[in-house]
Write a structure and sequence with these properties.
heterodimer, A: Alpha-Beta Plaits, four-stranded mixed β-sheet, about 15% strand, B: about 190 residues, mainly alpha
Chain lengths: ~260, ~190
């Protein structure tokens, strides 16, 4: 049969913590791109949703030995995603053509098992209907449908942008995307080039190359979730905290630092 | 069978299959009566002449009034619809508030380019003979879901005799399965 699907991709991301300054441009770009509403004025940070959250981590020592690193954490797009297995209504799916862990808010019934299962706290729940300040509805992205009260949501590698890129390619008669044709908003917005995005199936891509960088580590690697987000850091203590393996941490007790979320 | 029971069941079925469906849908007239057949046959136009793609591959859908202006700067006939078009829309450069029969719900992602350019599917496969119609049928939408009746189809039992009678998720996935195209949630949802 004629191949109607085109090449299967396996999209992945590399976040270079040595370059990240924690400016939060990725969080803002993400929220704008994906129609994530800002919390109503006067409400606390608990009302805010962010598909990408920058955490601040330190090495647990006092000044002048203290070191801090900012860690942007979107959905880790696990190959063996716990959220998929626990969802009782099949509202989460590993997309076979892209490797993206897809959340289908229309199907979600709001049980939040996925949020309990996700070891990365990368999933967020709509406790309220989203409200935009007057006039801001006009800025909504038409490629992304806003979610309603009572459903979980998370990063899907800016799927609206993938659809747009596919549309353009299809109009030119191509089933496959060229490298760089599709880029999530956070990767585009990062002023330091700390976020690299691409197809892990393409051995020539930057993400595939950086995936095996000596600075590379995956968050909570030992859990076997197989995240498609790779972090880079030249600091050993950052890599050890990122992996959070007890044996490594015991070997270096002092490196057990503090983790704080931005905003 | 007891005659009273028979009458009761018949009345119930009639209400369920004829009465309530009539109540379920709201009918609205289009703002202007458009004749697809005249454009296709007399002006020799194809669907893509008005319903084309933008440079970025996105589908234009219903054309803006400016695309009528080239031919309809002045009335081309005596019909009421023609005069209305020129006087109310072309001359004041107003857009016509068409009611879109085939508008999908907000969370549906459909790429015309993938279907028309790559898969070479004819417009008719999903839109039926709309392009040959001489008059616009009333627009009907579901009071509860607000979706156009074209999504569910004309028959209250669902579907229809022709593949273009309905545009439900099962119609999309049925065709994908037939053609061996991978289905995944985010392929068709956003």
């Amino acid at each position: 049969m004629e191949d109607r699907d085109g090449k299967a991709a396996r999209y992945g991301m590399v976040i270079d913590l040595d370059r990240c300054t924690g400016c939060g441009a990725c969080m803002t770009a993400c929220a704008v791109e994906n129609n994530v509403a800002v919390p109503p004025a006067g409400e606390g940070p608990n009302r805010s949703l962010t598909w990408m959250r920058v955490y601040r981590v330190n090495n647990g020592r006092r000044f002048p030995e203290q070191r801090t690193v900012c860690v942007p954490i979107p959905c880790q797009q696990c190959d063996h995603a716990p959220c998929i297995h626990v969802c009782p209504v099949t509202a989460v799916q590993l997309d076979p053509r892209t490797g993206i862990v897809a959340q289908v808010p229309e199907r979600c019934m709001g049980c939040r098992y996925c949020m309990a299962a996700c070891p990365y706290h990368a999933r967020y729940f709509n406790w309220f209907d989203p409200v935009w300040p007057e006039g801001m509805e006009n800025t909504l992205n038409p490629d992304v449908s806003p979610r309603m009260r009572g459903v979980a949501e998370k990063c899907n590698f800016c799927h609206g942008r993938l659809a747009r890129a596919r549309d353009r390619a299809a109009a030119e008669g191509r089933r496959d995307l060229r490298p760089g044709e599709y880029l999530p908003a956070c990767a585009e917005a990062c002023p330091h080039g700390a976020i690299v995005f691409g197809d892990l199936n393409d051995p020539g891509s930057d993400v595939a190359r950086l995936h095996d960088d000596p600075r590379a580590f995956r968050l909570l690697d030992a859990l076997g979730t197989g995240p498609k987000i790779t972090y880079l850091s030249r600091e050993g203590w950052v890599r050890r905290i990122g992996k959070s393996r007890l044996d490594l941490l015991r070997a270096d007790r002092e490196s057990v630092g503090e983790v704080r979320a931005h905003g | 069978m007891n005659r009273t029971a028979f009458v009761g069941v018949a009345a119930g079925l009639a209400l369920g299959w004829l009465g309530l469906p009539a109540l379920l849908y709201v009918r609205q007239a289009q703002p202007l009566d458009f004749n697809h057949a005249v454009h296709a046959e007399q002006a020799g136009m194809s669907c893509a002449d008005c319903h084309g793609f933008a440079a970025d591959g996105s589908f234009g859908g219903i054309p803006p009034t400016s695309s009528c202006t080239a031919c309809h700067a002045e009335a081309l006939g005596e019909s009421a619809a023609e005069l209305q078009l020129v006087e109310q829309y072309v001359v004041p450069e107003r857009e016509i508030p068409w009611l879109v029969y085939f508008r999908q719900p907000q969370n549906v992602l459909f790429s015309h380019a993938a279907h028309v350019v790559l898969a070479e599917i004819e417009c008719r496969r999903c839109h039926g003979d709309h392009g040959l119609s001489t008059t616009l049928p009333p627009y009907e939408y579901n009071r509860i879901s607000t979706y156009s009746r074209r999504i569910w189809g004309p028959r209250i039992a669902g579907g229809g005799a022709d593949p273009w009678d309905s545009m439900k998720m099962s119609d999309c996935s049925g065709c994908h399965a037939e053609r061996g195209v991978t289905d995944s949630c985010l392929m068709c949802h956003r």
